[in-house]
């Protein structure tokens, strides 16, 4: 099968979060399983700089976008055997950041989607059976296909899978501008078309017009049908429930492997982790000028600093948590208010806490390997990748049991002394604190239970293998339906 992933992010080319990781790894796994998966994304400035010599120019065209006619270049890059197409336009993508501001982003990704459809087939020299769309930045593709391309030969049989990585961001903008950018007739400008509560909504459109909709964990697929998690789209999702499913993300288990990871101080394995993990912990404590104490539980957190990640819960109890004999290291960037409050908390506890306000993938690996406990008290979490990485490195996550966190972490069972992490249910800072204290007490007084949990976490299967098979089955079902109808 031929599958084209359409996305605004892809690791290692351009990423701000988990979406980039997924698009960086799933297409490769599909290729290993014998399918021709490729990716298309915008040619951001950084990619142009870093990969200048590897880029092959394919062609250019002028694309009509509202009253404007815009230049659109198409480049190709071979990324260790994975073909990646890049859409070039200086005005839209010649910037340092992937995202700029809301209203300009709407226009930028409108252009991107139109350019992708213009180049599909002949121009790319690739006729995918499936367009695999990701998040709001790609949500309009199925409706543009229907409105402008259904009469064209090749485009007739293209089908769309829409994956929701985050329901909170939907791509909402004024009616006239969107109608104009996509050149849509009045027929589409209704609640049954692209509008949601009177305004165009990209993600809603993607859900409505795609052949199938997936999200990134089975539990989140259920949650988004409810008011609390549905972000206003729960009604539509429930009504179209037959085409919605949850497929759990995997992680890149080759790259994230404590047995071979070259970035960490000492490598270690599920059967012999104590010495290696201890050495990693000591090295991180030294690096950050924290007391090099093997017995003090070390909490780590690597995250985008946004509300979703439950930072308010942590900040509410951080002083109480640090009354215990523990150390805490937080790494990430994002919302300036969180950056400031975390730095302040670290300032109040110079002997116990560090707030590292930056993005640093190598440091993140040193933290995953050094930590005893990993904090992830998310308010909602479509899947979450870092809790899986933490477990693979034997760092037990403390999570709120929501979305993919509930699907991936087996919460500590105090009667049987088993689990792969610790969990709490409600959005309540003291439940987080209580659970952290429970974890500290297992760490301090039940070493056998702790050791078993670390080993169980490290042995959990977070590879893409099973999930990739589920996507393949989904693609095959859609293709079968198409040819029955024809
Ligand atoms: C988004 C979600 C996260 C998910 C990731 C990849 O970043 O917030 O839960 O793991 O996408 O699907």
Structure write-up:
This protein has two domains: 2-250 and 465-483, Rossmann fold (3-Layer(aba) Sandwich), CATH 3.40.50; 274-459, Glycogen Phosphorylase B (Rossmann fold). Helices cover 40% and strands 18% of the residues. It has helices spanning 18-32, 45-50, 90-93, 102-119, 141-149, 175-182, 202-209, 218-223, 227-230, 234-239, 274-287, 311-321, 336-348, 361-370, 386-392, 403-408, 429-445, 447-459, 465-485, and strands at 2-6, 36-42, 56-65, 68-79, 82-88, 130-134, 159-164, 195-196, 199-200, 212-215, 244-246, 298-302, 327-331, 353-356, 373-376, 396-400, 422-424. It is globular. The model has no long low-confidence stretch (mean pLDDT 96). The protein binds alpha-D-glucopyranose. Alpha-D-glucopyranose binds at residues 17-19, 22, 165-166, 216, 249, 381-385, 404.
Keywords for this entry:
486 residues; alpha/beta; Rossmann fold; six-stranded parallel β-sheet; 17 strands; 40% helix; binds alpha-D-glucopyranose
**Bound small molecules, which ones?**
alpha-D-glucopyranose
Sketch the major β-sheet: 9 strands, mixed
Approximate shape: globular
User: Could you tell me the number of beta strands?
Assistant: 17
Give the N-terminus to C-terminus distance in angstroms: 18 Å
- Beta-strand content estimate: 15-25%
Measured as a percent range, the helix fraction is 40-55%
Low-confidence stretches: none
CATH-defined architecture of the largest domain: 3-Layer(aba) Sandwich
Mean pLDDT: 96
Estimate nothing, just give the exact number of structural domains: 2
Please tell me how large the radius of gyration is: 23 Å
Q: Spell out the CATH superfamily of the largest domain.
A: Glycogen Phosphorylase B
Q: CATH class of the largest domain, please?
A: Alpha Beta
Structural class: alpha/beta
What spatial order of strands do you see in the largest sheet?
Answer: 3-4-5-2-1-6-7-10-11
Contiguous helical run count: 19
Please name the CATH topology of the largest domain. Rossmann fold
């Amino acid at each position: 099968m031929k599958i084209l992933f359409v996305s605004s992010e892809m690791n290692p080319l351009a990423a701000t979060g988990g979406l980039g990781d997924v698009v960086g790894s799933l297409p490769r796994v599909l290729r290993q399983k014998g399918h021709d998966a490729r990716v298309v994304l915008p040619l951001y400035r950084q990619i142009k700089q870093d990969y200048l010599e590897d880029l092959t120019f394919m062609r250019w065209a002028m694309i009509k976008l509202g009253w404007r006619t815009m230049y659109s270049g198409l480049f190709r890059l071979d990324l260790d055997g994975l073909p990646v197409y890049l859409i070039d336009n200086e005005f839209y993508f010649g910037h340092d950041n992937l995202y700029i501001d809301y209203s300009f982003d709407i226009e930028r990704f409108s252009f991107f989607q139109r350019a992708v459809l213009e180049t599909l087939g002949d121009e790319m020299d690739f006729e995918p059976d499936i367009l695999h769309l990701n998040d709001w930045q790609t949500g309009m593709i199925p409706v543009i296909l229907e409105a402008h391309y259904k009469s064209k030969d090749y485009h007739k049989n293209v089908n769309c899978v829409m994956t929701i990585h985050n329901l909170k961001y939907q791509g909402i903008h004024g009616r006239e501008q969107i109608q104009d950018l996509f050149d849509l007739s009045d027929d589409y400008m209704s609640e049954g078309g692209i509008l949601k509560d009177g305004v165009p909504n990209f993600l809603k459109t993607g859900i409505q017009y795609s052949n199938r909709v997936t999200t990134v964990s089975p539990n989140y697929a259920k949650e988004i049908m409810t008011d609390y998690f549905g972000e206003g789209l729960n009604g539509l999702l429930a009504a179209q429930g037959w085409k919605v499913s949850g497929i759990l993300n995997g992680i890149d288990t080759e790259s994230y492997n404590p047995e071979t990871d070259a970035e960490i101080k000492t490598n270690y394995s599920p059967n012999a982790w104590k010495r290696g993990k201890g050495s990693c912990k000591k090295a991180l404590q030294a690096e950050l000028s924290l007391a090099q104490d093997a017995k003090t539980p070390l909490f780590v957190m690597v995250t985008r600093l946004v509300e979703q990640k439950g930072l308010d819960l942590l900040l509410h109890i951080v002083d109480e948590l640090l009354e215990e004999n523990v150390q805490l290291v937080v790494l990430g960037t994002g919302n300036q208010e969180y950056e400031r409050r975390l730095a302040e908390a670290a300032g109040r506890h110079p002997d116990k806490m560090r707030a590292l306000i930056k993005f640093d993938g190598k440091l993140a690996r040193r933290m995953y390997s050094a930590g005893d406990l990993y904090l992830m008290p998310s308010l909602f979490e479509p899947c979450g990748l870092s809790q899986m990485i933490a477990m693979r490195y034997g760092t037990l996550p403390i999570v709120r049991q929501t979305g993919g966190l509930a699907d991936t972490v087996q919460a500590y069972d105090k009667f049987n002394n088993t689990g792969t992490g610790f969990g709490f249910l409600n959005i309540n800072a003291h439940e987080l604190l209580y659970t952290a204290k429970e974890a500290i007490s297992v760490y301090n007084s039940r070493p056998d239970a702790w050791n078993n949990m670390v080993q169980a976490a490290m042995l959990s299967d977070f590879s893409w293998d099973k999930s990739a098979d589920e996507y393949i089955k989904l693609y095959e079902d859609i293709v079968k339906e198409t040819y029955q109808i024809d």
